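Hey, sorry to bother you again with one of my protein questions. A protein chain has come my way and I'm curious about its shape. I'm sending you its amino acid sequence along with the backbone structure tokens. I owe you a coffee for this, so here goes:
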Amino acid sequence: MSFANTAETFLPNHVPNLEPYAKSRLAKQVKGVVRDDSGEPIPGVSILEKGTTNGTVTDLEGNFSIDVASDNSVLIFSFIGMTTQEITVGSQSALTIELASDTKSLEEFVVIGYGSQKKREITSSVANVNEDDFVQGGVRSPMELIQGKVAGLNITRTQGNNPNGNTDIQLRGLTSIKGTTSPLIVIDGVPGGSLDLLQQDDIESFDVLKDGSAAAIYGTRGNAGVILITTKKGRAGNAVFNYSTYFQREFVDKKPDFLTANEFKGLIDQGLIDPSNDLGYETDLYELLLNKQNLSQYHNFSASGGGESSNYRASFYFNEAEGIAVENNRRQFGGRINFNQSGINDRLTVASNLAVNFSDANRLGGSTGDFEQAIQRNPTAPIYNADGSFVETQAYNNYNPLSRYANRIDERNQQTFSGDLRLSYEIIEGLKVSAFGAHLRTNANDRYYQSMNDFANRPTSQYQGMGYASKSDSLNYSNTFESTVNYKRVFDGVHSLDAIAGYSYQYFTTETFNVNNNGFTTDVFLDWNLGAGSAINNTNLPRPGMGSFKEDNTLIAFFARASYSYDDKYFFQATLRREGSSRFGDNHKWGNFPAISAGWELTQEDFLSTSSTINSLKVRLGYGVTGNQGIGNYNSIVTLSGGGVYPQGGIYYQTYGDSRNPNPDLRWEKKREWNLGFDFLLFQNKLGGSLDLYSRETVDLLYDYSAQQPSFVRSTLLTNVGSLTNKGVELYLTSTIIKNADFSWRMDVTANTQRNNIKSLSNDIFTVSWIEEGGLPSPGNLGNAIRVEEGGEVGNFYGKRFAGFTEDGKWQFYKADGSIGGAGDMSSEDLQVIGNGVPKYMASINNTFTYKNFDLTVFFRGKFGYDILNTKDLYFGNKRWLPNNLLNSAITTHNNLDDDPQYSDYYLEKGSFVKLDNLTLGYNFSLNSEVFRNLRVYATGRNLLTITGYSGLDPELQDVGFNTGIDGRGFYPRTKSFALGLKVGF
């Protein structure tokens, strides 16, 4: 193969500027040529005299010439995708160097569930992200470490950097209507592991089982994919200590463009607002709701070490996250301990993990409705009265958030614990048995209090000027036991077998308790003396409440997997899991989930083995069936709920009745998935990656259908009817574009496209015309924004098509027959699909540059091909909202509008965007110290730039599930964040 074009592209601008040596030192000239293992010359090979900055590179024909100090000099030959060699010059003056292809990455192990495999042996779609490739800087959720790093994995924080906000996770599109739609999280082998127990410096790697053939080993919980998280473990050697910290600030990225007090008064002058609404002040409530002095901090200290037969790793952390909103933060601390011990001639191994997290969250601030007040509240209204009390404006949907902050408490204290123990014993060489047990426990305590001074508790309210308090506790725990038998052996040097069989048992329990009371005549007790509330005896006050609840379910499985390879060319894998769940009907307690996949390493065949262009090419084909048991408990049986009371002998007795219809035929949702994949290394291993094409169909979808009465007692029945399909393409590319003694540039690209369609919703017995989501808030009876119909795409906006305004600013829409009518002329037959809120394409580009001890990461991420419903404009961009405050768009973009709010494609905008999501600059100090092993400092900026045509605050919205693409009227400010961090090794 000729590398002329490659060399001309990469060499001229990137030859290292190497420091020349004094002629007196350079005593010998060495010449030579560098070739690959096929005999082709390699241009651009970096040649460095070890321990110096004296170096050169090979020319287009692979030739080089370098002056060295002596015969004892050592030359280092390195090239992208090739193994590095060190050669002692000796008496030689002419060298011929052969560099072999570096296939080390193919020998690395990937976790696949109940075991691991070499990358070269993988036959399913599995993505691996190691610590070196994590997203840099501070993160709110550990899942953000791989945001944009895995093609097809969609990770979105719908409330931005709200420390108490949730993270939406979806892999390869939607897989269910009623069931779980997020991937199963497995942490160190514990299915359903809690993300609260993970800190970014304790994670070793993520392995994402994307297709059905990979996820089938987890059966009924694999429909939405599986994410396997491996934490760092102890290693033999001297004790090692690490400390990591960062401090982070948040700044508002984009402020809503609402009317200031002066602009509001201008509308009064124009006669659009009654003069009585000028209250004489200039108030920017939005600014008052911001915590401009926010500072988040993170500290993690770890210690690890051990000997050949035992090792450990322990870490302890403190993590305080402050939101951009006032009264909005979360403080966490805890630790993680891993211990490993081997004995009996290394046949017996014991491994244990313990992790604990304690968190305190202030949930009072940060409500999306609070910032809605900042848009709509009269900007001429004061916050305080002259006596220091709060001003409460009572226009439609108005309240004073600062008054609530002063008079309420809303906190959560949570403790999460996970402990596991694994015993493994090698009976004979290659045959190993193991037993694994784990306990996962989360206990949350919530407290809430509204003081006597709270406006909602004013004397004219139902609380009659007295306080209200509530408390609730919830306990969720699971017990897991799994045992496996694993056999590995290589026969005759070419046949490799890895087989595993096992049993799994999991028991899940939820317990809750809650109590509330009111009628507190003093705030001194807050919520710590619930019995002091007078509502217990005062029947004119709202009734106190109490409740408790418990539910459980059991999951049992038998599973087996066999992997076979021949001569590192042909790979086969078969999996079967038979699983039973207490959640399903008596007629369908058990289900079978098979999978099969195969791989063919084409470059091991004669027709490609000598190719210098294609260094590695493997084709994969897999088919797998997974299930979904992510529904509520007891849906298949009759449960009771309280009815009215009836008197008997002067005593009132509680009555009970059926709360649901039983369904003994309730069964699993099942997803059948084909995956065709290609893994490749090209151009002397300069370009690597994978390409996957998948097609999946989920059948027996669960939904609540209308049930005939009689014979059914209740009007609805949860049963299996519908189906949906997903198709997509995923691409991952990685390339070290430049690498020499001082400088390197690596680029990673992920991209995917997906289509989600509802295939059917009805059968001969149970029918539903459509499913609607996205209910729009009042005022106005605007209905639902999203409709899913048979044959339609998931996420379709369904409504009216805008046809312009009349001369007096009234709405006009297109009717089904093509004519134009007003809002009152429209009927349900005139509605149609007007857009879609699910991104059709997603992509990311990560660039990593290094120069000597400096490194720079530049990470772009984007979503494309979807629509956003701008409900802020729908309500606040309409002068009919007056005398509530407005967005400026009401008197600019939508100035011609003079009518009540209407939902139509007039408010749909293109949502495509590209974000500069992460920019990190770091420096690694060169240390010669007996105390410090390494020292790194870095600065990170996140969400620094957004390129989009969307006029709203942020085009990245909830785009998982059915309720997609709606920019809600309330919001939490999107922020830019800046962090300074330090990592020290001792």
Q: What stands out?
A: Residues 1-25 have pLDDT under 50 and may be disordered. The first strand starts at residue 28 and ends at 36. Residues 261-269 form the longest helix (9 residues). Residues 125 and 210 are 5 Å apart (CA to CA).
